[in-house]
Amino acid sequence: MNLVDLSGNLLFTAFVAYLAGTILFGGAVKGSKNEASASNKRWGKLGITVTIIGFLAHLSYFITRWIASGHAPVSNMFEFTTAFGMLLVGAAILFYFLYKSPLVGLFALPIAIVILGYAAMFPRDIQPLIPALQSHWLTIHVITAALGEAILAISAVVGLIYLLKNIDLTKKSKERTWLEFIMFTLVLVLGFIVVTVGFRAAGYEAAFDYVDKNGAQAEVVYHMPALFGMNEYSAKTEGTMQPLAEMPAIINAKTLTTFTWSVITGIILYFLIRLISRRRIAELVKPLAVKANSQLMDEIGYRSVLIGFPVFTLGALIFAMIWAHEAWSRFWGWDPKEVWALITWLFYAAYLHLRLSRGWEGRKSAWLAVIGFAIIMFNLVAVNLVIAGLHSYA
Amino acid sequence: MSFIKCECGHQNPEGTDICQNCGRPLSKEEKSKRLADMRYDGAAIRSKTHKRSIVDKIWNFFSSVKIGVSIIIAILVASAIGTILPQVFYVPATSEAQAAQYYEDNYGLFGKIYNALGLSDLYGSWWFMTLVGMLGISLVVVSLDRGIPLYKSLKNQRVDRHPSFLKRQRLYGEGNVQDPDAVMQKAAEKLKEKRYKIREKNGALLAEKGRWARWGPYVNHLGLILFLFGVMLRALPGFYVDESMWIREGEISAVKGAPGLYLENKGFSFDMYTQENTNEVFSEAIDRVGSVASNYQTDVALYETPEGALPGSTNAELVKEYSIVVNKPLKHEGFHIFQMDFKLDELSAMTFALEQKESGESLGELTVNLADPQKEYDLGNGAKVELLDYYPDFSGFEDGEPQTATPVPNNPAFLFKMTTPETPEGETSFVAIRQTLEPLGENTYKLAFQSADTRDVSGLTVRKDKTIPVIALGGLIFMIGVVQGSYFNHRRFWIRKSDDGRIQVAGHTSKNWVALQRELDAVTEHAGLPAYTDQRDKEGHSDKSEGVSNT
Question: Where is the composition biased (Basic and acidic residues) (chain B) (predicted)?
Fold first, then answer.
């Protein structure tokens, strides 16, 4: 077995361990009456042990891939997202030891699993570095920024627990709707994974010629039946579905097709779940959260912002500026990715000020933490794939 | 300034929430709260006490955290809007009209409106800069408004606070103990062991540590102010140079914006990853993607005219030779020269043969150096070619006159006059790539294209930014402040015994209450202090009791 295969197997091991860890943490929470007792249960200890094993396997994936390629494996969408998942689990482990709450693990691991699943949908081959990325700042900047984001994400994890516990799901309210919306977006990501894996297993491929926005001829290969066609497309593969509509050149119809398929699949999945369980997803998950201590969740959320904010500032802004100064001749250029890092930073700055001076604790704070995570995810997903800029490496 | 007199007799400035001497609640609002508002230790802040003059009103506006957060959110939203479409500096347009056209062509009506509203240059707009400026002012005002009273309050804090002050702390416990003095002494011991500074007075004890963490926010605000100041400095002449230049292989050219510096382009190279030249782990990716660039490099020599040399003097001395690649700019005296762009295979010279059309007999060859075309080329034996006119980037005819779009030799065209012994009058020929015109009638001779030489052109950016030290210092101070405020905690315990043997204990921290509780747990266990509760945690009591019963 060569290093690259070994690396892939280690990542799979981590994935399986996280699944097992989720189940064990679930057992710890289910078998206890409340927060303080749950941590004493054998299940909790088993859960964290398996999680740590998974994390070590994940870390070994990272190191072996690093050795194989000669650069830190954070240079494209698959690598970055996988690393982010790893750091999220690392942050969850850190907070488990700080507060001994298995609930953090129970909710962080599924999110890490979804993130890993999402990462696996992108090309996994090892790519050589383009000139702009050939710098040790790639390692320093990206890993620090991702670590900061992972720590900040913990605040969203406990924020979600806080909201699940404290929002009354029996009464109609805006909060109940939004909470269900969060659950729905998680199902959407699953929809993306299911539909991608499905068409991939079926070996679907359809090639088109099209005219790109600079007026040049180009070729594109869809891996899903084309709902939307690229600008002035013509089909090259026989017997495949013809696009339902043609898009102008500035819209990437392939991305739009993938997005639409994901949404369709996500909606079907969501309604299947609703139909079978006859409940909202939030209601299904709520029993796991009711044992949380609200004050402790609020405390963990605040603490994770306090720990994550300086790390994020250092990685995503300061190191970013130093590198930008070396590579692009200016430390700041209003590139969309830079701007969204600034937006994330401003948002958490607002979180801290609202909390300190205006007493936004508990529920308001929890909502802010969830929105903060949404901004981080937007920067990872939409800014890379939709908004074109200097950071579009994926 | 008016004062509020506390029951204890202390004169507090107006606006004080908690008596700075004994800790009793003073304001009506404060009295109505179950727990003390410890944000600035209850001290009067300027914006709450001065409300009359215009200056006060402006001050109060900027000192409001509500306003501060609103400014932050406004900048946030504006920044987000600016990423919807590419900003004008990322758009391939050289004029405003071209840019407007670009937005309309590419993004339709939305693009037209976006550009017309000025959103395509949002970050350079006056209102965006005003927002950032307001944030800067807010940072200064808030820091002074809150920082100074907090500093004074903590510096002058008293040890023996009124029982009501302790009772209104979030962590609070009270109860009877057998030997209050021994308990107090043991508590002090344990707290000292935990590196608390202990002060005792009249049967009351104040233990405190990490007060400096409270200055973190003010330090990081100072860093931000410095950072913004550094950015503002750029507007001053001489602080900031930003030029781009194209330099052809073999050329020596003055470095733009850097008087006295000259750069020679000794060669540009552009490399790709191939299956052969890289590690085999990349082979799958190279197969999938096709071609991936591996290096852009300009080998240069930097020259400088010695100081005191006459203007225009050419005796420049070699400073150094360097290979500029992406991520490794050439650095010299504060100037950074970056590899930013390139153009491969620009025409540098073209060779023609003067041929008799019918026989194809050649009278000789001439080579036109496109960077330095000659007026006349003598081929010997009475044959010569005059270059009447040269159009480096021929773009067609206008009113019968050939036009050039740019001075760059992208599509060179020439107007030649050929003189031979056979045609002593001379014949005129217009020669462009794949096109020959004979404007003044049929010629006997022609200039046949033989070969062309090409060279690469490097696109370099020259930067000098004297504001970097100020900006870097601002960033550093910000980081120090934010770490100071986030990773360290200000913790205080008050313990008080009353004459009847009761002991009160209270704790406060700027953050991380769980850790504070752990410390108090340890002290309680060691000294036998009365049990405390977290008065904020409504679910906590049952948790704790069950947690204990399980162990």
Answer: 534-551
